[in-house]
Amino acid sequence: MMCQALSCLEMLLWLLLLLLPPLFLLVLLFLLLLLPPLAMLGQRFQEAGLSWLASLQHCVAWRVLSWAATWQQQRLEHNTLHVGQSQQQALMWCLQRAQGPLCPPTDMSIFRNHLPLTKVSQAQEEENGGQLLPPTSNQYHGEASLQATLLGLVALNKAYPEVLAPGGTARVTPTSPWPSPLPWPGHILDQVSPPGTKDPGALLLEALRSPGLKALEARTAVELLDVFLALEADGEELAEAIAAGTSGVPLPGRAAELREALEQGPRGLALRLWPKLQVVVTLDAGGQAEAVAALGALWCQGLAFFSPAYAASGGVVGLNLWPEQPQGLYLLPPGLPFIELLPVEEGAQEEAPSTLLLAEAQRDKEYELVLTDHVRLARCRLGDVVQVVGAYNQCPIVRFVYRLGQALSVRGEVTGENVFSEALGQAVGQWPGAKLLDHICVESSILDSSEGSAPHYEVFVELRGLRNLSEENRDKLDHCLQEASPRYKSLRFRGSVGPARVHLVGKGAFRALRTKLAACPSSSFPPEMPRVLRHRHLAQFLQRRVVS
Q1: Class of residue 508 by CB neighbours under 10 A (exposed 0-12, middle 13-18, buried 19+)
Q2: Cα 91 versus chain centre, distance
Q3: Does the N terminus or the C terminus of the chain have fewer Cβ atoms within 10 A?
Q4: How many domains does the chain fold into?
């Protein structure tokens, strides 16, 4: 009787799917969310019936998602065509929901005068897991989070039609890269990952049991790098668990495939484990470029990377509508969170210059992002600098360049994050066989290492392919820095700044540091990887792991 009831229910829902207008599909989706308990009960009677329910849920979820994405695309088109009006509405929404005295919502100049720009200190940033946190920020506030998820899923499915098919995707970190916690991406669209699982080991084990994966998801590229490092360290234990059927049916053949894939080294490991894999989905945040480069050169060689959004401390600030573009281009949307642009050239002046709205952005110019927190009405300078590379209707398309809070300065020279990273990349390219996995810098005063010498940079690196650093290789970084920064070169010539000192740390040192940073209670938002440490205890944490 239970099997007949399930069969009739399936036929009825299929008929409703064909006849009902899109609006009623939303109601149907919530009904489908109630089906899994019924399906689990029916499993005792007829296992085959579940495939119909799974197919039905998947089809309805895609119909609802596509309809919702179409609606959001229309809203985005309208808002980007009327960007001034859209930003004014977003500002009024913030003002109406703010706590405390409000400033008049009709005049931007009055708004700016009543609410001066604020900036969280670098020390607070580091203590909060490497992030600049606006007051009472929340990861999922703002229409941009919903748009990034809906439009990103549809764009990803268009670029890679098979990756979101049932059983084609696995998430290997406890948190999803999709910014908005919608019910269907993981549960209804049949992710391999067990629903609700927070154990990274269990997520990785389930992904390894599924050789037919077409997409791999992780919250950030840095976290995915840690997953592959853990896979290498615990490979034999994972193979034994797969062979014994710890989380399901014993799969001794799959365990043998895992061992064979690991024996061949890290290069191309993902495609050896999952031959049908096409794309890696991670959420872009500060300090991720190095991890993406390391993954692309080694474990995920030959795979495309896609980030649905750029996440900063105040929420999602950029939408990625172009999965086929590898450069990481993002549209700054005119809704919530409310975004202003601070010209970088003027940002160094003692008095903060006036900010610009999105429609006033100029191509090729660089701007620091300013987000307005709607709870306490704080106009927070995030420190994230973007360069305008194009336009979508009246809104700027940008690429993220660097973070102002990650600059080095021991004699007032201000070596930016992008300048240092470029110089380090050039130096590592001259170290035979070396692949850079991660790095962090410390100003010598933090470690009291300038006694008897000029102030300098202490640089900690984790590498693959090189176990020891010769003095000749260490000196190459300082030469590259001088070529990249005329100011640094001048100070080095005068002896005001000493040569950069490079330290090689052991395997897992940065993974342990990230665990330490993530233990901070306020580090719930997608973690930005710091490139400069300002606290002695964190710098000493890495110093104790130096091997060369």
Answers
A1: middle
A2: 27
A3: N
A4: 2
Nearest Cα neighbor of 334 from 66, 80, 531 is 80
- End position of a domain, from candidates 268, 284, 300: 300
Residue whose pair of structure tokens reads 């940079």 in the numeric block = 457
Find the length of the chain. 548
Asked whether residue 245 is assigned to any structural domain, the reply reads yes
Number of Cβ within 10 Å of residue 50's Cβ equals 16
- Do residues 443 and 458 touch, judged by C-beta distance below 8 A? yes
In a domain, 265, yes or no: yes
Q: How far apart are CA 543 and CA 50, in angstroms?
A: 55
Answer with the one of 260, 277, 300 that is the final residue of a domain: 300
Residue type, position 22, single letter: P
The whole-model pTM stands at 0.86
Which tokens in the block code for residue 481?
A: 């820095």
Q: Does residue 3 fall inside a structural domain? A: no
**Bridge-based pairing state of the strands 338-343 and 366-373:** antiparallel
What gap in Å lies between CA 60 and CA 30, rounded to an integer? 11
> Can you tell me which residue has the tokens 């991890």?
291
**Residues sharing a CB contact under 8 Å with residue 499, sequence separation 6 or more, in sequence order:** 456, 475, 478, 492
CA distance 519 to 540: 17
Dihedral sign for Cα 332, 338, 342, 344, please.
negative
The pLDDT profile of the chain, 548 residues, written as one tens digit per residue, is: 434 443 444 444 444 444 444 445 455 545 444 444 444 433 433 344 446 666 777 777 788 888 889 999 999 999 999 999 999 988 888 777 765 555 555 567 777 877 888 875 443 444 444 444 443 333 445 678 889 999 999 999 999 988 888 888 999 999 889 988 765 544 555 567 766 678 889 999 999 999 999 999 999 999 999 999 999 999 999 999 999 998 889 999 999 999 999 999 999 999 999 999 999 999 998 889 999 999 999 999 999 999 999 988 767 899 999 998 877 899 999 988 899 999 997 545 455 578 999 999 999 999 999 988 666 678 889 899 999 999 999 999 999 999 999 999 999 999 999 999 999 999 999 999 999 999 999 999 999 877 778 999 999 999 999 999 999 999 999 999 999 999 999 999 999 999 999 999 999 999 999 988 887 655 545 568 899 999 999 999 999 999 99
Tell me which residue of 313, 349, 283, 273 sits closest to 130, measured CA to CA.
313
Tell me the C-alpha distance between 51 and 7, whole Å: 11
Domain that holds residue 237: 162-300
